[in-house]
Amino acid sequence: MDFLHLPERTIKPRTYGLTSIIDLGTPYEELKNILTDYSHLIDVAKIGIGSAYVAPNLKKKIDLYKEFNVKPYCGGTLFEKCYLQKKIPEYLHFLQLHGIEWVEVSSGTLDISIEERLNIISNLLKDFHVIAEVGSKDVNHHMDISEWKQEIELLLNAGCNYVITEGRDSGTSGIYNQNGKINADLISNILENLDYEKIIFEAPTPKHQMYFINEIGPNVNLGNVKLSDVLVLEAQRCGLRCETFFMGEHMLI
């Protein structure tokens, strides 16, 4: 029964309004139960950090995600590990062997220049959909707002499907400071001239998620969402929580 007036949500297959979850070792049978109930709310699944390399039943889980129309990919840490050891060709073979069609290019742990990342991306685009990430996991690494905006723009213009703003699974780096506070000036500047529909904001907690929902609207792309928070996030998007209660009256999207 649909009797409430709620914010209009995009529906799968979505190009924006994405919920991108982080999978840090969800057992297969548990994942199957979750997807049976909530796959209509999940668009993208990141096999977090470098865990895909040591995950049991990885191919089986990848096939399950794809069966439920969720796009799986491996966290950027695994890409960077392979880059450091000069194993990118082997990594790409690993992805193809497991049926993974999306790849993340990042510089969260290593200092990989934007020029080098753009060169890698140009070589990946013929075989993969590419998600790039901007920002460092090192809280002491400072990027000017202009640098954030320039990198995002360059990566989108290079053909990346989406660009992620770094926030870690803890919300303590990148677009956040060490205590988890959002850099509001950075976010407002990013939103000025860039296409928010192509940006995935890492928002690992309901508090972070509600900030972006209120700032941008119910169809903001959010990443690093815990599987246990998927339904809560959708309720927040729909104005069914106190902090987003008036979303239906004040939509920006």
From TrEMBL:
It holds the Pfam family ComA. Gene3D superfamilies: Aldolase class I. SUPFAM superfamilies: (2r)-phospho-3-sulfolactate synthase ComA. Belongs to the phosphosulfolactate synthase family. This is Phosphosulfolactate synthase.
